Protein backbone atom coordinates (compact mmCIF):
# COMPACT_ATOMS: atom_id res chain seq x y z
CA UNK A 1 0.00 0.00 0.00
CA UNK A 2 1.48 3.33 -1.03
CA UNK A 3 1.57 5.84 1.83
CA UNK A 4 3.06 9.04 0.55
CA UNK A 5 1.67 12.52 0.69
CA UNK A 6 2.96 15.58 -1.04
CA UNK A 7 3.37 18.55 1.23
CA UNK A 8 0.83 17.24 3.71
CA UNK A 9 1.53 17.51 7.44
CA UNK A 10 2.97 14.48 9.19
CA UNK A 11 -0.27 13.76 11.00
CA UNK A 12 -1.94 12.56 7.81
CA UNK A 13 0.86 10.26 6.69
CA UNK A 14 -0.71 6.93 7.66
CA UNK A 15 -3.57 7.30 5.21
CA UNK A 16 -3.53 4.71 2.48
CA UNK A 17 -2.98 6.38 -0.86
CA UNK A 18 -0.60 8.50 -2.84
CA UNK A 19 -1.76 12.08 -3.11
CA UNK A 20 -0.96 14.10 -6.20
CA UNK A 21 -1.88 17.69 -6.63
CA UNK A 22 -1.59 20.35 -9.25
CA UNK A 23 1.60 22.34 -9.21
CA UNK A 24 -0.19 25.65 -9.58
CA UNK A 25 -0.12 27.87 -6.51
CA UNK A 26 -3.75 28.98 -6.32
CA UNK A 27 -5.13 32.44 -5.69
CA UNK A 28 -7.86 30.77 -3.70
CA UNK A 29 -5.45 30.10 -0.82
CA UNK A 30 -6.33 33.51 0.50
CA UNK A 31 -9.95 32.48 0.72
CA UNK A 32 -9.69 29.73 3.30
CA UNK A 33 -12.92 29.82 5.23
CA UNK A 34 -13.30 28.87 8.84
CA UNK A 35 -15.46 25.80 8.96
CA UNK A 36 -14.05 24.12 5.85
CA UNK A 37 -13.40 20.45 6.37
CA UNK A 38 -10.10 19.35 7.83
CA UNK A 39 -9.37 17.28 4.75
CA UNK A 40 -9.83 20.33 2.60
CA UNK A 41 -7.39 22.16 4.86
CA UNK A 42 -4.75 19.55 4.22
CA UNK A 43 -5.49 19.71 0.52
CA UNK A 44 -4.90 23.44 0.67
CA UNK A 45 -1.39 22.89 1.90
CA UNK A 46 -0.28 20.59 -0.85
CA UNK A 47 0.19 22.94 -3.77
CA UNK A 48 2.55 25.14 -1.78
CA UNK A 49 5.37 22.72 -2.49
CA UNK A 50 4.88 21.99 -6.16
CA UNK A 51 8.38 20.66 -6.66
CA UNK A 52 7.48 17.64 -4.58
CA UNK A 53 4.85 16.49 -7.02
CA UNK A 54 7.46 14.70 -9.06
CA UNK A 55 8.92 12.99 -6.03
CA UNK A 56 5.46 11.72 -5.17
CA UNK A 57 5.27 10.07 -8.53
CA UNK A 58 8.76 8.72 -8.33
CA UNK A 59 8.51 7.38 -4.79
CA UNK A 60 4.88 6.44 -4.76
CA UNK A 61 5.39 3.20 -6.54
CA UNK A 62 4.08 4.28 -9.94
CA UNK A 63 5.74 1.75 -12.20
CA UNK A 64 7.51 3.60 -14.92
CA UNK A 65 5.59 6.80 -14.22
CA UNK A 66 7.32 10.06 -14.87
CA UNK A 67 7.04 13.41 -13.16
CA UNK A 68 4.22 15.60 -14.43
CA UNK A 69 5.55 17.81 -17.20
CA UNK A 70 5.48 21.59 -17.14
CA UNK A 71 2.60 23.27 -19.00
CA UNK A 72 4.77 23.39 -22.11
CA UNK A 73 5.43 19.66 -21.72
CA UNK A 74 4.78 16.75 -24.02
CA UNK A 75 1.87 16.50 -26.40
CA UNK A 76 -0.84 13.91 -25.95
CA UNK A 77 0.82 11.80 -28.64
CA UNK A 78 4.19 11.91 -26.88
CA UNK A 79 2.56 10.87 -23.61
CA UNK A 80 0.73 7.93 -25.15
CA UNK A 81 3.18 6.70 -27.78
CA UNK A 82 3.98 3.02 -27.46
CA UNK A 83 1.06 2.46 -25.06
CA UNK A 84 -2.00 3.57 -27.02
CA UNK A 85 -2.41 2.10 -30.54
CA UNK A 86 -1.24 4.43 -33.31
CA UNK A 87 -4.65 4.35 -35.01
CA UNK A 88 -6.30 5.69 -31.81
CA UNK A 89 -3.68 8.42 -31.44
CA UNK A 90 -4.28 9.44 -35.01
CA UNK A 91 -8.04 9.56 -34.41
CA UNK A 92 -7.50 11.63 -31.25
CA UNK A 93 -5.53 14.14 -33.30
CA UNK A 94 -8.17 14.19 -36.01
CA UNK A 95 -10.70 14.99 -33.29
CA UNK A 96 -8.56 17.92 -32.11
CA UNK A 97 -7.02 16.35 -29.00
CA UNK A 98 -3.36 17.29 -29.21
CA UNK A 99 -2.42 19.12 -26.00
CA UNK A 100 -3.20 17.28 -22.76
CA UNK A 101 -5.31 19.02 -20.13
CA UNK A 102 -4.01 19.12 -16.52
CA UNK A 103 -5.81 15.95 -15.52
CA UNK A 104 -4.57 14.12 -18.61
CA UNK A 105 -1.02 15.31 -18.02
CA UNK A 106 -1.07 14.09 -14.45
CA UNK A 107 -3.01 10.89 -14.87
CA UNK A 108 -1.86 9.36 -18.16
CA UNK A 109 1.55 8.14 -16.98
CA UNK A 110 -0.16 6.30 -14.14
CA UNK A 111 -3.17 5.09 -16.09
CA UNK A 112 -1.04 3.83 -18.95
CA UNK A 113 1.25 1.99 -16.54
CA UNK A 114 -1.77 -0.05 -15.48
CA UNK A 115 -2.23 1.44 -12.01
CA UNK A 116 -5.60 1.53 -10.35
CA UNK A 117 -6.53 5.22 -10.14
CA UNK A 118 -9.11 7.50 -8.64
CA UNK A 119 -9.40 10.43 -11.06
CA UNK A 120 -10.59 13.41 -9.05
CA UNK A 121 -10.61 16.64 -11.05
CA UNK A 122 -12.80 19.63 -11.92
CA UNK A 123 -15.88 19.22 -14.05
CA UNK A 124 -15.04 19.64 -17.73
CA UNK A 125 -11.35 18.96 -17.16
CA UNK A 126 -11.10 16.04 -19.60
CA UNK A 127 -11.38 12.94 -17.43
CA UNK A 128 -13.29 11.05 -20.16
CA UNK A 129 -10.47 11.21 -22.69
CA UNK A 130 -7.95 10.27 -19.96
CA UNK A 131 -9.78 7.07 -19.07
CA UNK A 132 -10.69 6.24 -22.69
CA UNK A 133 -7.04 6.39 -23.74
CA UNK A 134 -6.21 3.97 -20.95
CA UNK A 135 -9.06 1.71 -22.11
CA UNK A 136 -7.54 1.60 -25.62
CA UNK A 137 -4.12 0.89 -24.18
CA UNK A 138 -5.47 -2.02 -22.10
CA UNK A 139 -7.46 -3.85 -24.77
CA UNK A 140 -6.46 -5.99 -27.66
CA UNK A 141 -8.32 -4.61 -30.70
CA UNK A 142 -9.69 -7.41 -32.81
CA UNK A 143 -9.94 -9.95 -29.98
CA UNK A 144 -13.64 -10.66 -29.77
CA UNK A 145 -14.38 -10.50 -26.03
CA UNK A 146 -15.50 -7.81 -23.61
CA UNK A 147 -12.21 -6.40 -22.35
CA UNK A 148 -13.30 -2.99 -21.10
CA UNK A 149 -16.40 -1.98 -19.19
CA UNK A 150 -17.34 1.64 -18.53
CA UNK A 151 -20.20 2.14 -16.08
CA UNK A 152 -22.13 5.43 -16.12
CA UNK A 153 -25.05 6.75 -14.06
CA UNK A 154 -27.43 7.75 -16.84
CA UNK A 155 -28.47 6.82 -20.34
CA UNK A 156 -27.55 10.28 -21.64
CA UNK A 157 -24.04 10.17 -20.21
CA UNK A 158 -23.72 6.66 -21.67
CA UNK A 159 -24.66 7.94 -25.14
CA UNK A 160 -22.08 10.69 -24.84
CA UNK A 161 -19.23 8.43 -23.66
CA UNK A 162 -20.09 5.83 -26.33
CA UNK A 163 -19.95 8.53 -28.99
CA UNK A 164 -16.43 9.62 -27.98
CA UNK A 165 -15.26 6.00 -27.63
CA UNK A 166 -16.63 5.15 -31.10
CA UNK A 167 -14.99 8.19 -32.63
CA UNK A 168 -11.65 7.13 -31.15
CA UNK A 169 -12.24 3.52 -32.23
CA UNK A 170 -13.03 4.44 -35.84
CA UNK A 171 -10.38 3.58 -38.42
CA UNK A 172 -8.43 6.68 -39.39
CA UNK A 173 -7.17 7.46 -42.87
CA UNK A 174 -4.58 4.86 -43.84
CA UNK A 175 -5.94 2.21 -41.45
CA UNK A 176 -9.00 1.18 -43.49
CA UNK A 177 -7.85 -2.41 -43.81
CA UNK A 178 -7.39 -2.93 -40.08
CA UNK A 179 -9.76 -4.83 -37.82
CA UNK A 180 -12.64 -2.70 -36.48
CA UNK A 181 -12.93 -2.07 -32.75
CA UNK A 182 -16.50 -2.29 -31.48
CA UNK A 183 -18.13 -0.33 -28.69
CA UNK A 184 -21.51 -1.40 -27.36
CA UNK A 185 -23.88 0.90 -25.48
CA UNK A 186 -25.86 -1.14 -22.98
CA UNK A 187 -28.16 1.55 -21.66
CA UNK A 188 -31.50 1.75 -19.87
CA UNK A 189 -34.28 2.05 -22.40
CA UNK A 190 -32.21 0.29 -25.06
CA UNK A 191 -33.06 -2.85 -27.00
CA UNK A 192 -31.59 -5.42 -24.66
CA UNK A 193 -32.82 -8.42 -26.64
CA UNK A 194 -30.82 -7.33 -29.65
CA UNK A 195 -27.80 -6.63 -27.50
CA UNK A 196 -28.07 -10.09 -25.98
CA UNK A 197 -27.77 -11.71 -29.41
CA UNK A 198 -24.93 -9.37 -30.35
CA UNK A 199 -23.04 -10.19 -27.15
CA UNK A 200 -23.40 -13.88 -27.91
CA UNK A 201 -22.52 -13.74 -31.59
CA UNK A 202 -19.66 -11.29 -31.55
CA UNK A 203 -18.76 -9.74 -28.20
CA UNK A 204 -17.51 -6.14 -28.51
CA UNK A 205 -14.17 -5.08 -27.03
CA UNK A 206 -15.71 -2.17 -25.09
CA UNK A 207 -19.07 -1.95 -23.33
CA UNK A 208 -20.51 1.31 -21.96
CA UNK A 209 -23.35 0.49 -19.57
CA UNK A 210 -25.80 1.86 -17.05
CA UNK A 211 -26.05 -0.25 -13.91
CA UNK A 212 -29.64 -1.44 -14.53
CA UNK A 213 -28.98 -2.83 -18.01
CA UNK A 214 -25.62 -4.22 -17.01
CA UNK A 215 -27.14 -6.22 -14.17
CA UNK A 216 -29.84 -7.65 -16.40
CA UNK A 217 -27.18 -8.89 -18.82
CA UNK A 218 -24.97 -10.29 -16.07
CA UNK A 219 -27.84 -12.06 -14.34
CA UNK A 220 -28.95 -13.63 -17.61
CA UNK A 221 -25.33 -14.70 -18.24
CA UNK A 222 -25.48 -12.84 -21.55
CA UNK A 223 -22.45 -10.78 -20.63
CA UNK A 224 -19.26 -12.44 -19.44
CA UNK A 225 -16.49 -10.52 -17.79
CA UNK A 226 -13.74 -13.15 -17.64
CA UNK A 227 -11.70 -11.29 -20.25
CA UNK A 228 -12.26 -7.83 -18.72
CA UNK A 229 -8.95 -6.01 -18.31
CA UNK A 230 -10.16 -2.57 -17.30
CA UNK A 231 -13.20 -1.37 -15.40
CA UNK A 232 -14.09 2.32 -15.31
CA UNK A 233 -16.80 3.75 -13.07
CA UNK A 234 -17.64 7.32 -14.01
CA UNK A 235 -19.31 9.65 -11.46
CA UNK A 236 -18.34 7.08 -8.85
CA UNK A 237 -19.43 9.09 -5.80
CA UNK A 238 -22.93 9.48 -7.22
CA UNK A 239 -23.17 5.79 -8.08
CA UNK A 240 -21.98 4.57 -4.70
CA UNK A 241 -24.40 6.82 -2.86
CA UNK A 242 -27.45 5.97 -4.87
CA UNK A 243 -29.43 3.33 -3.04
CA UNK A 244 -30.68 1.98 -6.40
CA UNK A 245 -27.20 1.31 -7.75
CA UNK A 246 -24.94 0.63 -4.81
CA UNK A 247 -25.71 -3.06 -4.30
CA UNK A 248 -25.19 -3.91 -7.96
CA UNK A 249 -22.06 -1.85 -8.17
CA UNK A 250 -20.45 -3.50 -5.14
CA UNK A 251 -21.25 -6.88 -6.65
CA UNK A 252 -19.66 -5.82 -9.92
CA UNK A 253 -16.52 -4.64 -8.13
CA UNK A 254 -16.08 -7.72 -5.97
CA UNK A 255 -18.04 -10.72 -7.32
CA UNK A 256 -18.31 -10.47 -11.09
CA UNK A 257 -14.61 -9.69 -11.41
CA UNK A 258 -11.61 -9.39 -9.13
CA UNK A 259 -9.08 -6.64 -8.56
CA UNK A 260 -6.13 -8.80 -9.60
CA UNK A 261 -7.48 -9.49 -13.07
CA UNK A 262 -8.38 -5.91 -13.97
CA UNK A 263 -7.26 -2.29 -13.79
CA UNK A 264 -9.84 -0.21 -11.93
CA UNK A 265 -10.41 3.47 -12.68
CA UNK A 266 -12.89 5.50 -10.64
CA UNK A 267 -13.66 9.03 -11.81
CA UNK A 268 -15.54 12.05 -10.50
CA UNK A 269 -15.24 15.79 -9.96
CA UNK A 270 -16.43 15.30 -6.40
CA UNK A 271 -15.32 12.67 -3.95
CA UNK A 272 -16.57 13.78 -0.54
CA UNK A 273 -14.32 12.60 2.31
CA UNK A 274 -11.80 11.38 -0.22
CA UNK A 275 -9.39 10.01 2.38
CA UNK A 276 -12.11 7.79 3.72
CA UNK A 277 -13.10 6.82 0.17
CA UNK A 278 -9.55 5.78 -0.70
CA UNK A 279 -9.40 3.72 2.49
CA UNK A 280 -12.69 2.02 1.57
CA UNK A 281 -11.45 1.27 -1.95
CA UNK A 282 -8.65 -0.82 -0.50
CA UNK A 283 -10.56 -2.32 2.44
CA UNK A 284 -13.57 -3.33 0.35
CA UNK A 285 -11.31 -4.68 -2.40
CA UNK A 286 -12.71 -2.35 -5.03
CA UNK A 287 -9.13 -1.51 -6.03
CA UNK A 288 -5.64 -2.86 -5.45
CA UNK A 289 -3.69 -1.68 -2.40
CA UNK A 290 -1.50 0.69 -4.37
CA UNK A 291 -4.41 2.65 -5.88
CA UNK A 292 -3.41 6.25 -6.68
CA UNK A 293 -5.55 9.26 -5.87
CA UNK A 294 -5.01 11.79 -8.64
CA UNK A 295 -6.46 14.94 -7.19
CA UNK A 296 -5.99 17.80 -9.63
CA UNK A 297 -6.25 21.35 -8.35
CA UNK A 298 -7.91 20.55 -5.02
CA UNK A 299 -8.28 24.19 -3.97
CA UNK A 300 -10.17 25.13 -7.11
CA UNK A 301 -12.98 22.63 -7.37
CA UNK A 302 -14.59 24.91 -9.97
CA UNK A 303 -13.00 26.87 -12.85
CA UNK A 304 -11.76 30.32 -11.78
CA UNK A 305 -13.39 32.05 -14.76
CA UNK A 306 -16.82 30.93 -13.63
CA UNK A 307 -18.79 33.90 -12.28
CA UNK A 308 -21.26 33.13 -9.46
CA UNK A 309 -24.22 35.43 -8.79
CA UNK A 310 -27.49 35.43 -6.88
CA UNK A 311 -30.73 37.39 -6.86
CA UNK A 312 -32.96 37.57 -3.81
CA UNK A 313 -36.65 37.51 -4.71
CA UNK A 314 -39.91 36.09 -3.40
CA UNK A 315 -40.94 32.62 -4.61
CA UNK A 316 -43.81 34.07 -6.67
CA UNK A 317 -41.44 36.53 -8.37
CA UNK A 318 -39.01 33.86 -9.57
CA UNK A 319 -40.43 33.26 -13.04
CA UNK A 320 -40.38 36.96 -13.93
CA UNK A 321 -36.92 37.34 -12.42
CA UNK A 322 -35.70 34.43 -14.54
CA UNK A 323 -37.13 36.06 -17.65
CA UNK A 324 -35.43 39.37 -16.79
CA UNK A 325 -32.13 37.56 -16.28
CA UNK A 326 -32.42 35.81 -19.64
CA UNK A 327 -33.17 39.07 -21.40
CA UNK A 328 -30.23 40.74 -19.71
CA UNK A 329 -27.68 37.90 -20.06
CA UNK A 330 -28.54 36.79 -23.61
CA UNK A 331 -26.94 33.34 -23.11
CA UNK A 332 -25.46 31.52 -26.08
CA UNK A 333 -27.14 28.47 -24.56
CA UNK A 334 -28.26 27.94 -20.99
CA UNK A 335 -29.54 25.37 -18.50
CA UNK A 336 -32.21 26.19 -15.92
CA UNK A 337 -32.07 23.72 -13.04
CA UNK A 338 -35.34 23.07 -11.26
CA UNK A 339 -35.88 20.89 -8.17
CA UNK A 340 -37.49 17.47 -8.48
CA UNK A 341 -41.20 17.22 -7.77
CA UNK A 342 -41.96 16.06 -4.24
CA UNK A 343 -43.97 12.89 -3.62
CA UNK A 344 -46.62 15.00 -1.89
CA UNK A 345 -47.03 17.27 -4.90
CA UNK A 346 -47.26 14.19 -7.16
CA UNK A 347 -49.97 12.73 -4.93
CA UNK A 348 -51.91 15.99 -5.09
CA UNK A 349 -51.80 15.80 -8.90
CA UNK A 350 -49.92 19.09 -9.21
CA UNK A 351 -47.74 19.72 -12.27
CA UNK A 352 -43.97 19.48 -11.66
CA UNK A 353 -42.00 22.75 -11.44
CA UNK A 354 -40.17 21.84 -14.66
CA UNK A 355 -43.49 21.95 -16.54
CA UNK A 356 -44.43 25.28 -14.95
CA UNK A 357 -41.10 26.85 -15.95
CA UNK A 358 -41.25 25.33 -19.43
CA UNK A 359 -44.80 26.58 -20.06
CA UNK A 360 -43.93 30.03 -18.76
CA UNK A 361 -40.86 30.33 -20.98
CA UNK A 362 -42.62 28.98 -24.03
CA UNK A 363 -45.24 31.72 -23.60
CA UNK A 364 -43.06 34.62 -22.48
CA UNK A 365 -39.48 34.18 -23.68
CA UNK A 366 -38.90 36.14 -26.89
CA UNK A 367 -35.27 35.22 -27.54
CA UNK A 368 -34.05 32.95 -30.33
CA UNK A 369 -33.15 29.90 -28.23
CA UNK A 370 -35.18 26.71 -28.37
CA UNK A 371 -36.79 25.93 -24.99
CA UNK A 372 -36.34 22.23 -24.20
CA UNK A 373 -37.15 19.95 -21.29
CA UNK A 374 -35.24 17.03 -19.77
CA UNK A 375 -36.50 15.48 -16.59
CA UNK A 376 -36.43 12.14 -14.80
CA UNK A 377 -40.13 11.47 -15.31
CA UNK A 378 -40.02 11.70 -19.10
CA UNK A 379 -40.07 8.42 -21.01
CA UNK A 380 -36.88 7.29 -22.73
CA UNK A 381 -38.06 8.29 -26.21
CA UNK A 382 -38.89 11.83 -25.14
CA UNK A 383 -35.56 12.05 -23.31
CA UNK A 384 -33.72 10.83 -26.40
CA UNK A 385 -35.45 13.44 -28.57
CA UNK A 386 -34.57 16.30 -26.20
CA UNK A 387 -31.00 15.08 -25.86
CA UNK A 388 -30.55 14.83 -29.63
CA UNK A 389 -31.98 18.33 -30.14
CA UNK A 390 -29.54 19.77 -27.62
CA UNK A 391 -26.70 18.72 -29.89
CA UNK A 392 -28.17 20.40 -32.94
CA UNK A 393 -29.21 23.86 -31.87
CA UNK A 394 -28.79 26.61 -29.32
CA UNK A 395 -31.09 26.02 -26.41
CA UNK A 396 -32.53 26.92 -23.07
CA UNK A 397 -32.80 23.61 -21.30
CA UNK A 398 -35.18 23.31 -18.33
CA UNK A 399 -34.00 20.32 -16.36
CA UNK A 400 -33.80 18.52 -13.04
CA UNK A 401 -30.44 17.31 -11.73
CA UNK A 402 -30.56 14.51 -14.29
CA UNK A 403 -28.49 16.82 -16.55
CA UNK A 404 -26.09 17.84 -13.83
CA UNK A 405 -23.71 14.87 -14.05
CA UNK A 406 -21.27 14.47 -16.90
CA UNK A 407 -23.29 16.23 -19.63
CA UNK A 408 -20.87 17.81 -22.06
CA UNK A 409 -22.57 20.66 -23.90
CA UNK A 410 -19.68 23.07 -24.48
CA UNK A 411 -21.88 25.86 -25.89
CA UNK A 412 -23.59 26.34 -22.49
CA UNK A 413 -22.60 29.78 -21.21
CA UNK A 414 -25.18 30.30 -18.44
CA UNK A 415 -26.57 28.17 -15.64
CA UNK A 416 -29.59 29.26 -13.61
CA UNK A 417 -30.53 27.64 -10.31
CA UNK A 418 -34.28 28.26 -10.35
CA UNK A 419 -34.32 26.06 -7.25
CA UNK A 420 -31.21 25.77 -5.12
CA UNK A 421 -29.49 22.39 -5.32
CA UNK A 422 -29.69 20.13 -2.28
CA UNK A 423 -25.98 20.14 -1.51
CA UNK A 424 -22.67 21.79 -2.33
CA UNK A 425 -21.74 18.74 -4.41
CA UNK A 426 -24.90 19.18 -6.48
CA UNK A 427 -24.07 22.89 -6.90
CA UNK A 428 -20.62 21.95 -8.17
CA UNK A 429 -21.96 19.53 -10.77
CA UNK A 430 -24.67 21.91 -11.97
CA UNK A 431 -22.12 24.72 -12.29
CA UNK A 432 -19.83 22.30 -14.12
CA UNK A 433 -22.20 22.11 -17.09
CA UNK A 434 -20.59 25.34 -18.23
CA UNK A 435 -16.91 26.35 -18.74
CA UNK A 436 -16.33 23.13 -20.66
CA UNK A 437 -13.93 24.29 -23.33
CA UNK A 438 -10.41 23.40 -22.16
CA UNK A 439 -7.83 26.19 -22.38
CA UNK A 440 -10.60 28.79 -22.93
CA UNK A 441 -10.85 31.65 -20.48
CA UNK A 442 -14.28 32.84 -21.59
CA UNK A 443 -16.34 33.83 -18.59
CA UNK A 444 -19.48 31.82 -17.97
CA UNK A 445 -21.92 32.28 -15.11
CA UNK A 446 -24.10 30.53 -12.58
CA UNK A 447 -26.99 32.56 -11.15
CA UNK A 448 -29.09 31.34 -8.23
CA UNK A 449 -32.59 32.68 -7.59
CA UNK A 450 -33.08 32.57 -3.85
CA UNK A 451 -35.28 33.84 -1.02
CA UNK A 452 -33.85 35.74 1.96
CA UNK A 453 -33.92 32.54 4.02
CA UNK A 454 -31.96 30.61 1.38
CA UNK A 455 -29.07 33.08 1.44
CA UNK A 456 -27.70 31.15 4.40
CA UNK A 457 -27.73 27.88 2.42
CA UNK A 458 -25.95 29.43 -0.55
CA UNK A 459 -23.38 30.90 1.84
CA UNK A 460 -22.71 27.39 3.11
CA UNK A 461 -22.05 26.20 -0.45
CA UNK A 462 -19.70 29.16 -0.94
CA UNK A 463 -17.72 28.17 2.16
CA UNK A 464 -17.57 24.53 1.26
CA UNK A 465 -16.62 25.01 -2.38
CA UNK A 466 -14.53 28.15 -1.83
CA UNK A 467 -16.15 30.56 -4.23
CA UNK A 468 -17.71 33.98 -3.86
CA UNK A 469 -21.13 34.99 -5.06
CA UNK A 470 -22.01 38.46 -6.26
CA UNK A 471 -25.45 39.87 -5.43
CA UNK A 472 -27.59 41.16 -8.30
CA UNK A 473 -30.39 43.49 -7.24
CA UNK A 474 -33.90 42.93 -8.47
CA UNK A 475 -34.40 46.63 -9.25
CA UNK A 476 -31.41 46.68 -11.60
CA UNK A 477 -32.79 43.73 -13.56
CA UNK A 478 -36.08 45.40 -14.31
CA UNK A 479 -34.64 48.89 -14.90
N1 LIG B 1 -6.90 17.41 -24.59
C1 LIG B 1 -8.02 18.03 -24.94
N2 LIG B 1 -7.99 19.02 -25.87
C2 LIG B 1 -9.11 19.67 -26.23
N3 LIG B 1 -10.34 19.40 -25.72
C3 LIG B 1 -10.44 18.43 -24.80
C4 LIG B 1 -9.28 17.69 -24.37
N4 LIG B 1 -9.69 16.78 -23.45
C5 LIG B 1 -11.02 16.93 -23.32
N5 LIG B 1 -11.48 17.91 -24.12
C6 LIG B 1 -12.88 18.40 -24.22
O1 LIG B 1 -13.22 18.94 -22.95
C7 LIG B 1 -14.61 18.79 -22.71
C8 LIG B 1 -14.82 18.25 -21.29
O2 LIG B 1 -14.25 16.96 -21.18
P1 LIG B 1 -14.93 15.78 -20.33
O3 LIG B 1 -16.36 15.61 -20.72
O4 LIG B 1 -14.04 14.62 -20.39
O5 LIG B 1 -14.87 16.42 -18.87
P2 LIG B 1 -15.00 15.66 -17.46
O6 LIG B 1 -13.77 15.92 -16.71
O7 LIG B 1 -15.41 14.24 -17.67
O8 LIG B 1 -16.20 16.49 -16.82
P3 LIG B 1 -17.38 16.02 -15.81
O9 LIG B 1 -16.75 15.84 -14.46
O10 LIG B 1 -18.33 17.17 -15.85
O11 LIG B 1 -17.96 14.76 -16.36
C9 LIG B 1 -15.13 17.88 -23.79
O12 LIG B 1 -15.85 18.66 -24.72
C10 LIG B 1 -13.90 17.29 -24.44
O13 LIG B 1 -14.10 17.03 -25.82
From TrEMBL:
Keyword vocabulary terms for this entry: ATP-binding, Helicase, Hydrolase, Nucleotide-binding
Residues covered by the Helicase ATP-binding domain: 108-289
Alphabetized GO MF terms: ATP binding; hydrolase activity; RNA binding; RNA helicase activity
UniProt protein name: RNA helicase
Protein EC: 3.6.4.13
Helicase C-terminal domain sequence ranges: 318-479
Catalytic activity: ATP + H2O = ADP + phosphate + H(+)
Enzyme class: hydrolase
Source organism of this protein record: Canna indica (Indian-shot)
Amino acid sequence: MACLYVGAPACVLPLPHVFLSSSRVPKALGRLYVGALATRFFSLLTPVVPANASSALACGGADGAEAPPSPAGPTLREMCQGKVPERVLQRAEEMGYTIPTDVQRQSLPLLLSGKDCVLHAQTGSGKTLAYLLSVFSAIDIGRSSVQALIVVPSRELGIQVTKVARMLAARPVGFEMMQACTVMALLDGGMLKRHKSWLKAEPPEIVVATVGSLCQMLEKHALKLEAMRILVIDEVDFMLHSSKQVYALRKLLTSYSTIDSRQTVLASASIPQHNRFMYDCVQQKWTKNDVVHIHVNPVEPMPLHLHHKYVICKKKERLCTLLNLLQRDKPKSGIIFVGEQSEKSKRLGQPPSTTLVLDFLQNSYRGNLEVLLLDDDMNFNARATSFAELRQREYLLVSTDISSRGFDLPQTTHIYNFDLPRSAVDYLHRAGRTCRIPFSKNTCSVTSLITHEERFVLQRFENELMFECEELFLETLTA
